[in-house]
Recover the amino acids of this structure.
C-alpha cells in the first residue's frame, strides 16, 4: 500500500540576478534528486532569481526573467516524474508576492505565496513583497503566455492550499513562517498534512544553527509529521553568508543533515521515510486528535501522483541521527572562508591583499584566508570540478591543480607590513613569521617618508608643525599625526593591491581586506579611511574575544610546528595596539584598551545590551548595576555607561563608510541595513544621563 516516501531537500549557492547560473544549479539539483530516487524536490527561497535581489524586485525584468527560467524548467524532460518546488517572485493582481511554484510533468499544481514576511535585522521583505493574508483561501492566477504555451493551462490555483497526492498530503511553509508564533504547520498538521516543507533564505550567525534545528524538530514533536527544510548557501552578493544546513526531520527527530559550510554549489539531501510512522505517532496524542477534529480544512489540490511505490514493504527507511554542531571557532574558520571564496571568484579578481600588523585582528584575517585555501584544496581533492575551474581562472593557468594550501596561498594572497618609526620590532617579526607560516607573498615597507611628506606640506602651508603629545603637542595634534599614518596605509594598500601582481609578471588585481572587529566598530575606535577601509572585511562581525579563541583553534588545527606555535601564542598574548604613537625606550606604550577607556570584554557586553536587548543609556545602566554589582559601584557603572554612549555617538558617523563585513553577530553596528541609527547625535545625552544620575543618587 505505498508507505515509504523518498524526498529531497536542496542547498544551492544561488547568486542574485544570475538567472543562467541559478537555472543550471536548479537543474543539477533535480538531476541528483531523481538519480537518488526522490519523488519530491524542494529548493531554497526565491532560488530562481536569488534571494538578495533587494530593490531589483521592483523591476518588472526580475519577474519576467524568473518566468522565463520557470518555462525552461517546465519544458525540460529533466523535471518529469518528480514534483518540483521552486521559489520566485510573482505579480498577482498588481501585488508582488514571494512565492513557491510547485509543478509536475509540465503542469503547475499550485502557486503558494508567503504568509509571514521576514522584516527584522538583515531582512526587508515588506519593502518588496506583500504577505498573503487570506488564510485557507485560493484564487485563480492567470498565467503569462510564456508559461501557457508550455503547460497548456490558462489559470492555476494561487493561495493558501495544500497538495493531496495519492498517498499523503503536503503543505508548504516559507522561511520566516517556521519562526512565527502561529506557524502554518500547526493548523496544517491538525488538518492531516503529513509532510511539511520549508524553503529558506536563512543566513549564518555565530551560535545560531541549533535554533533552526530545534525549531524544525519541535515543529513535528508535538504534532507528528515529516519536515523538510531547504536553504540557500554561500554569498549571493552582499554581507550575508547563507549557511545551508538542509535537513529532514520526522516526529521530532533529525533523520538527515546537510553541511553548514562547503564549497559545493549544489548539495542534495535525500531521505526515505515511512508515512505509517507519522500516523502511529499521531494516533496516541489524544489532545492533538481532539484539536484536529475541530480544525477548519485547507483547500486541497489533488495530484495524481504518489511519493511512494505500491510495493515498498522491504524498502529501508532513514533512522534518527544526532545533529553535529560546529564550535564557534570552527564557524569562524569555515563561514568567512567560504564567503571570501564566493566573493573572490564572482568578482573575478586574482586574490587578496591584507595589511598585516602582527596583531590579533589582522592575524585572524590571514588565518581565515589560509582556511579558505585549505578548503579549496580539499574540495579539488574531493573532485569538485567547479572549484577547480574557478581556481584556474583566478590564477590564469588552465593546467594548475591546487594541492598544498600554502602554495596556493602564495599565488593568491599578499600580506604587507607597513612599518613606521612608531612600530615595534615585535610586531614586524610576528607579521613576517605568520606570513611564512601560511605561505603568503609578504612585503615589508616603511611609510615614514610618506608621512613626513604629508606633514611637510601642512607645515609649508601653515608655518606650524604638529607634535605628538609625548613631545609637548596637544591632543588635537596627537590625533592628527596618528590619523595621517593610518590613512597613508590605506592609500598604499590600494596601490599595492592594484600593482603588486604587475610587478610579479602576473595578470589581475587584488581585493583589499579590512580587519576591524565588531567591537572596535561599535566604539568607533578606528580612523575613518584607514586600513579599516577596504573592499571587504571577513571579521567585521566578530568580537575580539571570539577572534582570540579562533587563533587558539588555528594553533591546534592547522598543524603548526612547535616554533610556529610559540609565534602565534605571542600574537595571542600581545596587548592590542595601534602603534601610532612614539615608542618609549623602544617599547610600545600605546594600547587599545587604554585609548578606548574600556576593555574589549566590556565592549561586547555594551554591544549586546545596546542592540540585542534594545537598551538605551538608562536601561543599560539599570541592567549593569545588577550584572556588575560584585565589581562596580552604581556610580562606577554610571560613569562607564556614559563614557560608552559618548564615544559611541561621537563616532557613529564612521559606520556610514564601514567596509562591507561578513555578518556574524547580532550586535553588529553595520549601518547599511542591520543597525539603522542616526549618525549625528546630541552627544551630551542630557536627559538620559540625568535619569541615570538621579538613580545613582537614590541608590
Amino acid at each position: 500500500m505505498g508507505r515509504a516516501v523518498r524526498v529531497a531537500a536542496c542547498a544551492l549557492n544561488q547568486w542574485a540576478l544570475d538567472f543562467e547560473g541559478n537555472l543550471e544549479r536548479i537543474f543539477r539539483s533535480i538531476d541528483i534528486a531523481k538519480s537518488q530516487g526522490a519523488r519530491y524536490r524542494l529548493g531554497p527561497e526565491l532560488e530562481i532569481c536569488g534571494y538578495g535581489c533587494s530593490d531589483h524586485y521592483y523591476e518588472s525584468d526580475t519577474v519576467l526573467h524568473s518566468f522565463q527560467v520557470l518555462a525552461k524548467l517546465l519544458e525540460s524532460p529533466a523535471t518529469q516524474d518528480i514534483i518540483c518546488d521552486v521559489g520566485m517572485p510573482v505579480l498577482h493582481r498588481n501585488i508582488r508576492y514571494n512565492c513557491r511554484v510547485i509543478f509536475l510533468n509540465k503542469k503547475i499544481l499550485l502557486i503558494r505565496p508567503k504568509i509571514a514576511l521576514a522584516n527584522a535585522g538583515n531582512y526587508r521583505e515588506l519593502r518588496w513583497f506583500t504577505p498573503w493574508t487570506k488564510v485557507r483561501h485560493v484564487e485563480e492566477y492567470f498565467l503569462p503566455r510564456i508559461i501557457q504555451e508550455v503547460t497548456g493551462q490558462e489559470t492555476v490555483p494561487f493561495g493558501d492550499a495544500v497538495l493531496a497526492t495519492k498517498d499523503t498530503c503536503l503543505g508548504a511553509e516559507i522561511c520566516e513562517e517556521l519562526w512565527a508564533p502561529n506557524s502554518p504547520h500547526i493548523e496544517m498538521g491538525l488538518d492531516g498534512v503529513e509532510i511539511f516543507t520549508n524553503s529558506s533564505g536563512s543566513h549564518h550567525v555565530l551560535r545560531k544553527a541549533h535554533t533552526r534545528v530545534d525549531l524544525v524538530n519541535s515543529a513535528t514533536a508535538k504534532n507528528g509529521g515529516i519536515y523538510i527544510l531547504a536553504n540557500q548557501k554561500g554569498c549571493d552578493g552582499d554581507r550575508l553568508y547563507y549557511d545551508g544546513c538542509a535537513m529532514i526531520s520526522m516526529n521530532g527527530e533529525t533523520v538527515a543533515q546537510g553541511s553548514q559550510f562547503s564549497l559545493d554549489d549544489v548539495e542534495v539531501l535525500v531521505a526515505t521515510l515511512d508515512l505509517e510512522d507519522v500516523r502511529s505517532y499521531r494516533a496516541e496524542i489524544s489532545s492533538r486528535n481532539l484539536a484536529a477534529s475541530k480544525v477548519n480544512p485547507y483547500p486541497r489540490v489533488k495530484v495524481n501522483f504518489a511519493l511512494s511505490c505500491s510495493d515498498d514493504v522491504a524498502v529501508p527507511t532513514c533512522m534518527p541521527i544526532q545533529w553535529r554542531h560546529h564550535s564557534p571557532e570552527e564557524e569562524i574558520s569555515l563561514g568567512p572562508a567560504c564567503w571570501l571564496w564566493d566573493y573572490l571568484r564572482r568578482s573575478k579578481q586574482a586574490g587578496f591583499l591584507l595589511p598585516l600588523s602582527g596583531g590579533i585582528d589582522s592575524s585572524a584575517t590571514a588565518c581565515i584566508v589560509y582556511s579558505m585555501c585549505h578548503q579549496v584544496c580539499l574540495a579539488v581533492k574531493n573532485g569538485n570540478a567547479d572549484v577547480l575551474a574557478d581556481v584556474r581562472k583566478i590564477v590564469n593557468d588552465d593546467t594548475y591543480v591546487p594541492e598544498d594550501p600554502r602554495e596556493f596561498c602564495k599565488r593568491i594572497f599578499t600580506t604587507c607590513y607597513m612599518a613606521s618609526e612608531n612600530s615595534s620590532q615585535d610586531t614586524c617579526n610576528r607579521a613576517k613569521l605568520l606570513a611564512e607560516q601560511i605561505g603568503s607573498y609578504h612585503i615589508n615597507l616603511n611609510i615614514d617618508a610618506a608621512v613626513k611628506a604629508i606633514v611637510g606640506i601642512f607645515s609649508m602651508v601653515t608655518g606650524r608643525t604638529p607634535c605628538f603629545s609625548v613631545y609637548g603637542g596637544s591632543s588635537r595634534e596627537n590625533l592628527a599625526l596618528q590619523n595621517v599614518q593610518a590613512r597613508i596605509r590605506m592609500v598604499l594598500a590600494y596601490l599595492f593591491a592594484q600593482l603588486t601582481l604587475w610587478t610579479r609578471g602576473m595578470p589581475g588585481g587584488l581585493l583589499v581586506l579590512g580587519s576591524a572587529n565588531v567591537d572596535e566598530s561599535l566604539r568607533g575606535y578606528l580612523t575613518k579611511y584607514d586600513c579599516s577601509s577596504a573592499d571587504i572585511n571577513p571579521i567585521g562581525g566578530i568580537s575580539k574575544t571570539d577572534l582570540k579563541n579562533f587563533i587558539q583553534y588555528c594553533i591546534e588545527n592547522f598543524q603548526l610546528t612547535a616554533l610556529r606555535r610559540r609565534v602565534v601564542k605571542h600574537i595571542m598574548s600581545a596587548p592590542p595596539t595601534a602603534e601610532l604613537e612614539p615608542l618609549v625606550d623602544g617599547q610600545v606604550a600605546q594600547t587599545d584598551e587604554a585609548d578606548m577607556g574600556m576593555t574589549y570584554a566590556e565592549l561586547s557586553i555594551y554591544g549586546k545590551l545596546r542592540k540585542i536587548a534594545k537598551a538605551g543609556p538608562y536601561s543599560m545602566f539599570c541592567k549593569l548595576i545588577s550584572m556588575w554589582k560584585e565589581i562596580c559601584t552604581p556610580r562606577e557603572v554610571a560613569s562607564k555607561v556614559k563614557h560608552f554612549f559618548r564615544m559611541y555617538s561621537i563616532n557613529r558617523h564612521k559606520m556610514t563608510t564601514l567596509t562591507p563585513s561578513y555578518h556574524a553577530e547580532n550586535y553588529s553596528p553595520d549601518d547599511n541595513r542591520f543597525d539603522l541609527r542616526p549618525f549625528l547625535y546630541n552627544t551630551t545625552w542630557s536627559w538620559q544621563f540625568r535619569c541615570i544620575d538621579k538613580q545613582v543618587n537614590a541608590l
